[in-house]
Amino acid sequence: MTSLNLVLLGAPGAGKGTQAELLVRDLSLVHLSTGNLLREAVESGTGLGREAAAFMDQGQLVPDQVIIGLVREFMQEHRGCLLDGFPRTLPQAEALTELFQELELELNHVIEVRTDPELIVSRLQQRLVCTACGAPYNLKSKPPKAEGRCDLCQGSVERRQDDEPETIRKRLAVYQAQTAPLVDYYQEKGILLTVDGDLTPEGTYAQIQAALGVDSQ
Ligand code: AP5
Ligand code: MG
């Protein structure tokens, strides 16, 4: 299968990053997590990072025009993209539809990872991420092999600043208000696949493979 373009849609902590790691491994896709990109910018102290940090720390979305510009740049340079955390507003989804038309590419599927909000809160309170490559870990279900070090790149594994209970609740509310409507948007386009995010990572991934019609390893 060549040049698939996919979107991973789901609430904060639904498991988008976890499933992205498996999809990238098996389908040779280029992973774009807008959240990881923004955190890198914050870490490097760029202008974008300074602008984004104020929104991210409050659990709010970064303005559409900033994010759309970043994704446009990325999509012009890569083929076979896995978009994780974009789009998350209707204007972003419409801009992405236009961008695919302009580049004469197709968005093949939007995979909605649907996860119980109660599970999400406990997962995010246990989450650690690699500050270098963004790989997600979990104190309970997926601790790094060496404490504090990423299995993949040896980067430093830490808690995310927005994984505090109050910010998690804010992010979940923002998801319901601004991102959940995209489920209907993509359902109407006939490209939505919904999988159960309450299972183990492997269980959810098996559903994604079945929905995409790709062989399990
Ligand atoms: P972003 O980084 O995209 O965060 P998010 O959407 O809140 O999602 P998360 O990364 O928190 O969760 P995830 O679904 O990836 O779950 P994970 O796999 O890590 O965005 C952060 C911020 O950036 C936003 O709030 C916003 O400010 C800004 N931003 C980003 N994109 C934007 C955009 N397009 N527009 C505007 N602003 C934007 O899993 C979570 C935990 O659970 C981990 O510990 C993992 O190990 C564990 N886990 C996962 N799956 C399972 C499972 N099946 N069983 C047990 N544990 C599991
Ligand atoms: Mg993520």
Question: How is this structure best described in words?
Answer:
It is a single chain. With 217 residues, this protein is of the alpha/beta class. 49% of the residues lie in helices and 15% in strands. The strands form two sheets. The protein has a five-stranded parallel beta sheet, sandwiched between helices. The protein has a three-stranded antiparallel beta sheet with strand order 6-5-7. A hairpin with a 5-residue loop joins β5 and β6. The longest helix has 15 residues. The two termini are 15 Å apart. Magnesium ion (MG) binds next to α1.
Give the radius of gyration: 16 Å
Q: Summarize the amount of helix as a percent range.
A: 40-55%
Question: What is the global morphology?
Answer: globular
What is the ordering of alpha helices and beta strands? EHEHHHEHEHEEEHHEH
Hetero ligands: BIS(adenosine)-5'-pentaphosphate, magnesium ion
Based on secondary structure, the structural category is: alpha/beta
Distance between the termini: 15 Å
Number of strands: 8
> Low-confidence stretches at least 5 residues in length (pLDDT < 50)?
none
- Give, in spatial order, the strands making up the sheet with the most strands: 2-3-1-4-8
What would you call the quaternary organization?
Answer: single chain
> How is the biggest beta sheet arranged?
5 strands, parallel
Output the number of helix runs: 9
Report the mean per-residue pLDDT as an integer. Answer: 95
